[in-house]
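[audit] Reproducing an earlier prediction to check determinism. Same input, same settings, fresh worker. If the tokens differ from the archived copy the diff job will pick it up downstream; this log only records the rerun itself.
[audit] input (173 residues):
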Amino acid sequence: MAQTGEIINRVEKSPLLTINLEDYYPHGERVQLDIAPWLFQGMILKEKDFRAEVKEHDWSKYQDQFVAITCSADAIVPTWAYMLIASKLQEYAKMFIFGSKTELEKILFKNSLEKINPEDYTDKKLVIKGCSDLKITEFAYVEIVRLLKPVASSIMYGEPCSTVPIYKAPRKK
């Protein structure tokens, strides 16, 4: 068989569809708001003092940020205290949750990935891009498989030139 010397890019011609989770990364600063310093002796919430802290706090510093509200002290904090903080953050933060920054990251990605229409990937061979410049959590990789496995014909992880098989749909009879 004679060679023409022409280089053929097999990856470019393959039916593989690459999904880069960086495309779904919610951009913005993530911060944690710990209310422990607002507690009397680090463990008791005194309503009057707490309300004063909330009132004097500079909420504008959370402008367009993602905020995780937490209390690092082993204290009993009434639910209304977190609700009061939420009411203040509502004006400034892009989004806020009660929980850790790790939980915040999960929720941000879950919300972002829910914008995907799984039907767009029906019977497609997918590669979930593995290398990224941003910190993509394992949660995001698991979530994309949860969303797309029911419709995809196959799912692989890595790069189109070097993949690890994750799922292959049974052949239709």
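[audit] rerun output stored. Observation attached for the diff report: The chain has five helices and seven strands.
[audit] end
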